[in-house]
Design brief:
single chain; mainly alpha; 79% helix
């Protein structure tokens, strides 16, 4: 029973993260277009990203088509990282490891925190299962 709760928590956490990301892209639409243009993509990439993030969010929250959504999401994330990676200056990579007061860094650390909480829940449940 506990494993199901953890899986549901992770699923809902990811659904909320992608929903918030899509809403952020809508609110800051012009700024996101600038970033996609800088990556060599056009406004179409921003629109597609918003739609895809909303679909993933709904899929995760409603627990529908989850396996397909996860596989597609992994492929899209890998493609996005492959497009962006050549443009990341090596000198800027330190921001991954140190907390800085930027929205991106705050979001990354929020995700780290959520994953650590879920890991702690899993560990605690595993320990209590072993005592039974």
């Amino acid at each position: 029973m506990e494993k199901i709760q953890l899986k549901n928590s992770l699923r809902l956490f990811l659904g909320i993260i992608f929903g918030v990301a899509a809403i952020g892209r809508i609110i800051f639409f012009k700024e996101c277009n600038v970033e996609f243009t800088r990556l060599g993509l056009g406004i179409w990439a921003n629109i597609v990203t918003i739609v895809v993030e909303l679909l993933f969010s709904v899929s995760f929250i409603l627990n529908k088509y989850l396996r397909s959504a996860c596989v597609l999401l992994m492929l899209l994330l890998l493609a996005g990282m492959a497009i962006a990676l050549p443009q990341v200056p090596i000198s800027g990579l330190y921001t991954i490891f140190f907390f800085s007061p930027s929205p991106e860094n705050l979001l990354v650390h929020f995700i780290y925190l959520g994953l650590v909480v879920l890991l702690l829940i899993e560990y605690t449940q595993h320990k209590s299962d072993n005592k039974k």
